[in-house]
Amino acid sequence: MADIIQLLPDSIANQIAAGEVVQRPASVVKELMENAIDAQCSTLQVIVKNGGKTLVQVIDNGCGMSETDARMSFERHATSKIREANDLFALRTMGFRGEALASIAAVAEVELRTRRPDDEVGTLLQINGSEVIQQEPLACPVGTNFCVKNLFFNIPARRKFLKSESAEFKNIVTEFQRVALANPQVEMRLQHNDHELYFLPKSGLKQRIVAIFGKALNSSIVECSTQNSIVNVSGYVGKPEIARKTPGNQFFFVNNRFMKSMHLHRAVMNAYARLIPEGYNPPYFIYLDVNPANIDVNIHPTKTEIKFEDEQSIWGIIHAATREALGRFTLTPTFDFDPQTDLTLPYISPSAPVPDMPGVAINPNYNPFEAARDSFENASSFGISAPAKTYSPAPADVYAQPPSEPERYMLPGLVDADNNATFESTAPRFMQIKGKYIATSIASGLMLIDVRRAHIRILFEQFMANADGQILGQRELFPSTVDLSPQHHALLLEHQSQLTQLGLELSDLGHNTMSVNSMPVGLQHVEPSKLIDDMLLALNEDYTGNAEQSLKERLVLSLAKAAALNYVKPMNTTEMQALVDSLFACNQPHISPDGLPVVSTIDLNELDRRFRK
Ligand code: ADP
Ligand code: MG
To answer: Please, which pLDDT band fits residue 390 given cuts at 50, 70 and 90?
Structure first.
């Protein structure tokens, strides 16, 4: 039988290898930007069309390539960055594998224009799916200009798996930000579909961070640095008050390369323990400089994970540096005193007569249970308008069954049947437990309701019912302004009309600042910048299925959560009644809009079981 093993042709081998390097347009952006940085450029421009599916173009003014190098650069394992194995332990460049260009050219249509400073003419090279189409001399500026068109044009199965334009562009922005944060000394631009999202002049690190993430960070990050024989740490960490529910804005760079490390992330988060609420994310930008011999970057093909030789010590060092930075900031008083407020205390002479003692009026006839029935403020004080119909017995619905008196209060020997009515009229019907639950007795046993989730369900259904038309906005007397990152600014502008529909009216003041002209009715007590954060969180989530519908639902859910009662608010009987009534007037009272149980019942059998001998 004939031998059957053959070497794969280069074009196929490159396509297979491309699978590792080029997953999506953002991978192309990352590789080309890193090459430009390695080429020592001082300006770098990224131009993207259709989320990078049609075009990714990266232009630098770096060292450029000779005609031969231009051709060589597309060969697999072709690199100018290492020559021998030992070089691997002294790496200071972004690339070194010599795989990126070969991989990109295998799965796209690539045009390269490049010229070195000392050459009179440059080179144009065109390669489609690993095949050289054209190579000729060309007059062009110094540096390198890569055009990558129609990614995966020759692998329809992979092209089909690319996500929506906005999802792909989001990934590109992420990669762009990482390279931009690592290289503030380079002027950078990012342009998408003829709109310039970022123009970042050459600057210091702090200005770069602020230019990317918005002016709000200017006064809310503190320097974090320490130096020792193992590692040099520098960068910035956010003050606790700037921590947000929005994920992200947390960066580690090791020798100027963006890296992910759960281990080091915990070192930072641990330093924030008890300074920020659970689930909040402080921004941090931490740069580690270590001897390249002590790290192994080789463990992952896309090189965003890293192994340190001495992980434990580095953990301790980062933890201590973060703590120290936060401590330094909390020791300096940061309270914003209102300059109008007169803080001087009146002088009281020791010989001055003692003023009258404040009196305390007490009512000896006070009965807390009566008070619990009569003297409450209006239930609508927390935004629930009781439905016209209170919850009434529906035979099939055990929750809706109001408790029957004898069942609840029959205490044999103490109360006889005739007395029930009086006892009942003074007894509280609902009980609040730990500010978190409402307990009430029902025909089949005991029902417990989670207060906050119930309120979220009620508001969600009210808002959804309105959102078809519109949720009213309450005009702000003094519109507040929010400073945003260019990315969040663009996201809000894109969804401005949907937000207006929800009563949140924003207007653009330019320079990534927006003013909040109206807040949705029922949310006036919420801090506008907090609500905007919640909206951004909802807008940013990846979603599947009916995009329009689910986006609206997500926004409305965020509104409902922001407006809903927090736990621990003491409630009176009227309020509890209104909440329970409104809950059972909902279409789906038992489950919160994000899928959590709202109501739980313990039936009589279960209760009886507990009292069994
Ligand atoms: P690597 O970056 O791992 O060396 P690449 O495939 O990304 O591999 O690039 C191959 C080579 O092409 C690089 O080593 C470099 O010499 C050259 N090169 C790539 N991009 C540029 C650029 N923008 N400017 C100058 N030279 C470049
Ligand atoms: Mg490279």
So the answer is: very low
Q: Does 22 share its domain with 170?
A: yes
Q: Which of 202, 221, 237 finishes a domain?
A: 202
- Binned at pLDDT 50, 70 and 90, residue 534 comes out as confident
Ligand 1 center from residue 27 Cα (angstroms) = 15
User: Mean pLDDT score of the chain, rounded to an integer?
Assistant: 81
Of 38, 56, 103, 179, the residue with max ligand 1 atoms within 8 A of its CB, to mutate for a pocket test, comes to 38
Q: How many domains does the chain have?
A: 3
Substitution site in 79, 110, 148, 188 for ligand 1 pocket (most atoms within 8 Å of beta carbon): 79
How many other C-beta atoms lie within 10 A of the C-beta of residue 596?
A: 12
Helix (H) / strand (E) element for 547: namely helix 547-563
Q: How far is the CA of 131 from the centre of ligand 1 (A)?
A: 19
Q: Residue 59 corresponds to which tokens in the numbers above?
A: 């232009």
* 8 A C-beta contact, residue 73 and residue 101: yes
Return the pLDDT at 253. Answer: 94
* Adjacent-strand bridge partners of 446: 441, 602
Q: Which atom of ligand 1 is nearest to the CA of 98?
A: 8
If you write DSSP's letter for every residue of 338-362 in order, what string do you get? Answer: -TTS--PPPP--TTSPPPPPPP---
Q: Sorting pLDDT into bands at 50, 70 and 90, what band is 330?
A: low
User: Same structural domain for residues 93 and 128?
Assistant: yes
> Any idea what the Cα angle at residue 469 is, between residues 465 and 471, rounded to 5°?
75
> Do residues 584 and 464 touch, judged by C-beta distance below 8 A?
no
Alpha-carbon separation of residue 335 from 272, 286, 339, 580 (angstroms): 19, 26, 12, 41
Distance (Å) of CA 373 to CA 168, 172, 601: 58, 60, 25
Same domain, 446 and 523: yes
Looking at residue 418, what is its pLDDT?
39
The closest-lying atom of ligand 1 relative to the alpha carbon of residue 94 is: 2
Q: Give CA torsion, residues 326, 327, 330, 331, to 10 deg.
A: -150
**Span 558-569, pLDDT tens digits:** 889 988 877 767
Q: How many CA atoms lie within 13 A of 394 on its CB side?
A: 9
- Flag whether pLDDT at 92 surpasses 90: no
Residues 301 and 384 in one domain: no
3-state secondary structure 42-85: CEEEEEEEHHHCCEEEEEECCCCCCHHHHHHCCCCCCCCCCCCH
In the predicted structure, residue 367 carries a pLDDT above the cut 50: no
Average pLDDT rounded to a whole number, residues 280-292: 91
**Could you tell me the residue range of the domain that residue 315 belongs to?**
212-331
Are 466 and 552 in a shared domain?
A: yes
- Residue 103: CB atoms within 10 A of its CB come to 25
Residue 246: pLDDT above 80?
A: no
Q: How far apart are CA 196 and CA 203, in angstroms?
A: 19
Which atom, in ligand 1's list, is nearest to the CA of 63?
25
Where does the pLDDT of residue 349 fall: very low under 50, low under 70, confident under 90, or very high at 90 and above?
very low
Query: What gap in Å lies between CA 273 and CA 266, rounded to an integer?
Result: 10
Q: Hunting for tokens 């809950």 — which residue is that?
A: 583
Higher pLDDT, 538 or 492: 492
What percentage of the chain reaches a pLDDT higher than 70? 79
